[in-house]
Design brief:
single chain, 212 residues, alpha/beta, Rossmann fold, seven-stranded mixed β-sheet, two-stranded antiparallel sheet, 7 helices, 9 strands
Length: 212
């Protein structure tokens, strides 16, 4: 799987500016057992570089996209990171190996419960799972050094931009539901203004408001 991801990173470098994964991101991908985060019916595909269906009409993202979003977010050992759209918990597990503290929000109660249980079983002790409205972020734990959003929205949610620390990075797919979107990196400058870089065409499920 990691070889496939590295090939995709190289193939898209002209668009993203990312020509290699950091050793820490690569090690996290190698360490997290992706097969634990997918349903039994598709477990034989767990280490393909492809998105896969999970329950509740959701998906687990393609490993290349997880790797790219993680690389763009650039978490370090002291980072406080917000992961919007927990899903299976796979992205949160990768971030757990890289960041100081990970807060992850899922709008579907059943997925939030399952992800919390699995992350605890895998000793991702620096991850906190919440069932709630990812659009609104998690204000009590802000500001965040990095925010990753695993669902598409036409515009960056204002609460997430507000909760981003100065010098922080927000990685989010922007575009209409069920169409090709663009993965965007938003950096907050020290003066509070933001700079936006469009990275790559992507396809994500839409960001939905809370069912919790």
């Amino acid at each position: 799987m990691v070889r496939q991801v590295l090939a995709q990173v190289a193939a898209t470098a002209a668009h993203t500016g990312v020509d290699a994964l950091s050793p820490r991101v690569r090690a996290a991908l190698e360490a997290v057992p992706r097969h634990r985060f997918v349903p039994e019916a598709v477990r034989d595909l767990a280490y393909d570089d492809s998105a896969l269906p999970i329950d509740c009409d959701q998906t687990i993202s393609q490993p290349f996209i997880v790797a790219l979003m993680t690389q763009l977010a650039a978490p370090d050992e002291g980072s406080r990171v917000l992961d919007v759209g927990t899903g299976s918990g796979y992205q949160a597990a990768v971030l757990s190996a890289l960041a100081g503290r990970v807060y992850t929000i899922e709008t579907v109660p059943e997925l939030a419960r399952r992800a919390a249980a699995l992350l605890a079983e895998l000793s991702c002790d620096n991850v906190e799972v919440r069932c709630g409205d990812g659009f609104a972020g998690w204000e009590e734990h802000a500001p965040f050094d990095a925010i990753l959003v695993a669902a598409a929205t036409p515009e960056p949610p204002p609460p997430l931009v507000e909760q981003l620390a100065r010098g922080g990075r927000l990685v989010v797919p922007l575009g209409e539901p069920f169409q090709i979107q663009e993965l965007v990196l938003i950096r907050k400058r020290e003066d509070g203004t933001v700079a936006t870089v469009r990275e790559l065409p992507v396809a994500f499920v839409p960001l939905t408001r809370s069912r919790c």
